[in-house]
Amino acid sequence: MLYIDNFDKKIKTFPPGREIYSKCFKIGRSSFQVLIYPSGEHSNDSDYVSVCLRNRSRGEVKAKSKFTVLNKDIEKSLSEQIFQSEGYDNTWGVEQFIPHTRCTRNDLLSNGVLALQVAVEVLEEDDTDNADLTAKDAGQKLQSLEKTVHIQTGQIHRLQEYIEGMESQNKSHTNELKTMIRHLSLSFMRSSSTHPHSLPGITIECPVCLEVAGPP
Predict the structure, then answer these.
(1) Which end of the chain is more exposed for a tag (fewer CB within 10 A), N or C?
(2) Both 117 and 138 in a single domain?
(3) What's the domain range around 191?
(4) Mean pLDDT per segment of 10 residues, for the chain of length 216 residues?
């Protein structure tokens, strides 16, 4: 269903060949679009409203359609047609669908609104195109997956380099701590041999009796 507001004004302001188009809609695997020309598709149809059905699928479609002004006595049908995917043959329609003399609020328009009903029956669809689309989609998904893997591999390499750097720093710090502990141990041993009962500047108390403890 298509509802076009102020259609009586549009037939006065739209030149021939200027269309109003619907959103694309799907029937099965096929996509279509409806085109309405308020002042005709061509200059010799400028006193009529033209309506067309366009194939927006990637492949060939065989279909038939019917255009109806809702609740009025206007109905035009398109017999079976093969809609190509591109070019002039992808669109079929009724060039002189309704005359401008009937596009009034007292006749076909309700408060200036044209209510157009479009019925489409799909008879055949091009499976080859859908197979090509499936293969294309699979190829695109594979490319996307390869790109994702490449990015994640780079991130993993950077993380490995970061971890190796951290391990190297930790190893360096560990070696420094071991050296400091070794030097402190040597200093402690020297101090113990020189002052067996006390260390200069160091007081070690027993946590139980609180008396000063001597080595060892």
Answers:
(1) C
(2) no
(3) 127-208
(4) 95 95 92 96 94 92 95 92 84 94 94 95 78 71 89 90 90 88 82 58 77 79
